[in-house]
Amino acid sequence: MYNLLKGKKGIIFGALNEHSIAWKVAEKAHEQGAEFVLTNAPIAMRMGELDALAAKTGSQIIPADATSVEDLENLVEKSMEILGGKIDFVLHSIGMSVNVRKGKHYTDPKYDFTTKGWDVSAVSFHKTMNVLYNKKAMNEWGSIVALTYMAAQRVFPDYNDMADNKAYLESIARSFGYFFGRDHKVRVNTISQSPTPTTAGSGVKGFDGFIAYAEKMSPLGNATAADCADYTISLFSDLTKKVTLQNLFHDGGFSNMGVSDAVMEKFE
């Protein structure tokens, strides 16, 4: 226990069940002394177990559709009421591809599905920051973090249009992060995490094979959801006050590897 977040207040989007990275972040933030509000889409809340997390962390839940500016305004206003002041940290852990869910190949998508996917996965991040920025809801030196994946930079065929969504998300973090830093001294970063067996990640075709491949490629092995939570907490803390506009790879070294001995042995 370091009490890295003692006295800090936040909003955590996207916890669904104990496999969710957002769930692990909430547990770690609570351990480190933070108070926060939990939020997810109403349909996701019916599927998940958010009440148990709220009870464990002493948190309140505010349902919100992150694609709705009206819902986000209500979320931010009520969060400040509940927490008794401005926000110090926000986690955006939201991603969804209807094309992936429906088995539509990248070369033959349904574009209505594509639009819904980028609205949920990327534009929701812009909308969230827009509300926080215009309401001046963040304390100075606050921290906003979104979760992403390296398919934003490199080809992973079965990741489908989620790769485009993540590239868009990372661009929003940089572009909005400039204004948030300049005007309110708030930092904005994305964490590019190892493939992680969450509910969303496990829905990608060939996921089990890929997670095994990434484990063999990464000199430190894959980063777990709990590892990612630890890293996220460090970005919420005052120890990283001058880190902003960054896409931070948290993947055991995978992102800088060309090939590993363990992978080469499979082909020799």
TrEMBL record:
Domain of life of the organism in this record?
A: Bacteria
Protein keywords: Fatty acid biosynthesis, Fatty acid metabolism, Lipid biosynthesis, Lipid metabolism, NAD, Oxidoreductase
Pathway linked to the protein: Lipid metabolism; fatty acid biosynthesis
| InterPro entries (UniProt xref) | Enoyl-ACP_Rdtase_NADH, NAD(P)-bd_dom_sf, SDR_fam
Residue numbers annotated as active site: Y149, Y159
Its BP terms in the Gene Ontology are: fatty acid biosynthetic process
Q: Which residues form a coiled coil?
A: none
Instruction: Tell me the GO molecular function terms.
Output: enoyl-[acyl-carrier-protein] reductase (NADH) activity
Q: Which SUPFAM superfamilies match?
A: NAD(P)-binding Rossmann-fold domains (SSF51735)
What's the catalysed reaction?
A: a 2,3-saturated acyl-[ACP] + NAD(+) = a (2E)-enoyl-[ACP] + NADH + H(+)
**Residues binding NAD(+):** G14, S20, I21, I94, K166
Q: Could you tell me the EC number(s) of this protein?
A: 1.3.1.9
User: One Pfam family for this entry, by name?
Assistant: adh_short_C2
**Family matches, as PANTHER family:** ENOYL-[ACYL-CARRIER-PROTEIN] REDUCTASE (PTHR43159), ENOYL-[ACYL-CARRIER-PROTEIN] REDUCTASE [NADH], CHLOROPLASTIC (PTHR43159:SF2)
Give the protein family: Belongs to the short-chain dehydrogenases/reductases (SDR) family. FabI subfamily.
Protein name as catalogued: Enoyl-[acyl-carrier-protein] reductase [NADH]
What organism does this protein naturally occur in? Polaribacter aquimarinus
